[in-house]
Design brief:
This protein has 69 residues and is mainly α. It is built from 1 helix and no strands. It is 86% helix and 0% strand. It starts with a helix and ends in an 8-residue tail after the last helix.
Length: 69
């Protein structure tokens, strides 16, 4: 009878361990994907910055820029 509680406890602990392992794998996957999203967003921001500079240059050439700039 003393073996039964140990077996039940061990079985529950094994299930908890398996779930924890899956959660750790999922977390690693999410971190990897988030890093990819951040890198992509940084690239978009760089392109927008370059476009902003180009638009400002075009506005100056066409004398369209506001006096406040």
């Amino acid at each position: 009878m003393a073996d039964e509680p140990d077996s039940i406890v061990l079985a529950v602990l094994r299930k908890i361990d398996q779930r924890t392992e899956r959660m750790a794998e999922d977390l690693h996957d999410l971190k990897t994907r988030m890093t990819s999203v951040e890198e992509g967003l940084a690239g978009v921001n760089r392109r927008l910055d370059r476009l902003e500079v180009r638009v400002e240059r075009i506005e100056k050439r066409l004398e369209l820029s506001d006096a406040t700039h």
